[in-house]
Amino acid sequence: MAADPLPARTRTILAEITDMLVSVVGDEILLVGEITCATTFNDDLALESIEFVALAELLQQRYGPSVDFLGLLAEKDIDQILAMTVGELAAHIGRVTLADQACAS
């Protein structure tokens, strides 16, 4: 049996993002299959702009204002936004929340 290549922290963040996506879009989002780090918001999940906004609100409620999803999107060009994966968001959350913890210490 192969070891899970994702660190526990990334798995936790991925699960939380998945729960938020189900909350925003509904259970039908799970029909696309398992949401992984390689799942794209555009091609795989077909998220609409209002759903991005709703997801951003849930992310800030869960992780705080430093996880600025809309700000992250604003830094990207249209091709980067269309290609963005759940894994990229999870990595962003991991970096920002670790930095917040370091500053709080």
What would you say this structure looks like, in words?
The chain is mostly helical and 105 residues long. 61% of the residues lie in helices and 0% in strands. The chain has 5 helices and no strands. It has helices spanning 8-25, 49-63, 69-74, 78-83, 86-104. The longest helix has 19 residues, at 86-104. The N and C termini lie far apart (38 Å). The model has no long low-confidence stretch (mean pLDDT 88).
Q: How far apart lie the N and C ends?
A: 38 Å
- What quaternary form is this? single chain
Q: Can you count the beta strands? A: 0
The percent of residues in helical segments reads 55-70%
Main structural class? mainly alpha
Mean of residue pLDDT values:
88
Q: Which percent band covers the strand fraction?
A: under 5%
- Biggest sheet statistics: none
Number of helices: 5
Order of helices and strands: HHHHH
Shape descriptor reads: globular
Unreliable stretches: none
Radius of gyration: 14 Å
